[in-house]
Amino acid sequence: MAGSWLGLVQGFGGLRIAGGHLRFAPTLPKAWKGYGFNLRWRGCALRVDVDARGVRYRLDEGGLLVFAHAGSEVVLEPGREVVLPLAVPSPPKAVFPRACQALIFDLDGVLTDTAHTHYRAWKRLADGIGVPFDLQVNERLKGVDRMASLEIILERAPRAYSADEKRALADTKNGYYVQEIAKVGPQDLFDGVRGVLDAARAAGLKLGLASASRNAPALLQKLGIADCFDYIADAGRIVRAKPDPAIFLDVAAALGVPAQLCIGVEDAAAGIEAIHAAGMAAIGIGDARALRHADAVIPRIADFDLRTFVSP
Ligand code: B16
Ligand code: MG
Fold this sequence. Notes:
The chain has 312 residues and is an alpha/beta fold. The protein contains 10 helices and 14 strands. It folds into 3 domains: 2-84, Maltose phosphorylase, domain 3 (Sandwich), CATH 2.60.420.10; 102-114 and 184-309, 3-Layer(aba) Sandwich (Rossmann fold), CATH 3.40.50.1000; 115-183, DNA polymerase, domain 1. It has helices at 2-12, 114-128, 135-139, 146-154, 163-181, 193-202, 216-223, 246-255, 269-277, 306-309, and strands at residues 16-18, 21-24, 34-41, 44-51, 54-61, 65-69, 72-76, 81-84, 102-105, 206-209, 231-232, 262-266, 281-285, 296-298. The radius of gyration is 26 Å and the shape is elongated. Bound molecules: 1,6-di-O-phosphono-beta-D-glucopyranose and magnesium ion.
């Protein structure tokens, strides 16, 4: 009930409390004839009715009430009412910057399938020490750095591990991972990656890479796309891992592009959070439910059409 009330009063009535004052900006959805609600505020009882003719505010109890309607101040005396025009809904904010100057890509799970390679390496380690680990837990590891990933896996461990043991486990996992990526080559790029990078370059955009993986530079070399990027973040130098915005801000600064003119591309929820915290628009690649906070989600990088997000 409380949720429904808030949905109506804040969502359609536009109620906000700012600086200790009530603000309204009521709108009327096309399919509705009208709606109304009561509100008690500092000893005042206010009735608000909204229909196609406008918004009626009536003060049933209390002293003088001052509030804002669609940005203008209204002073209402007890027992009086006032009818004002409906607020004009503001157009949705353009999330993707018109003057976008840079695309900043994540690597694992966006440009190549190493998200699964990481999974297999962690799985091999977890099985070896008898810790349950599955694809569901793995979702939480995406975009998360090596030691933080290990901590998540060890949440289910039957015993505690010392710092030295943890370092050794992380090294073992990395050994498994490095072993697997030894055979990686340009054939392992996801379909469409080359096309996206070339189109972005042709459109004059700068390209950056914000991968949490310390193996990223070596992997880019193997994939044959290292030269496509103007800047590749050094994951070893980034102190705060995703979802902290540090890595995306580092790349934007190195490219010399303000954050609000960058678009980040990620396959992990932690990465989307990091992009937003950096003040950038976020494109998710993968499952729309897992990436529901992204500004747009496309299933595969092959579906990435630059013109959808960047004006020529
Ligand atoms: P490493 P991304 C991340 O890369 C992976 O998603 C994550 O699973 C991995 O733990 C992390 O890199 C660290 O990788 O152990 O190679 O340093 O998605 O940010 O490109
Ligand atoms: Mg990733």
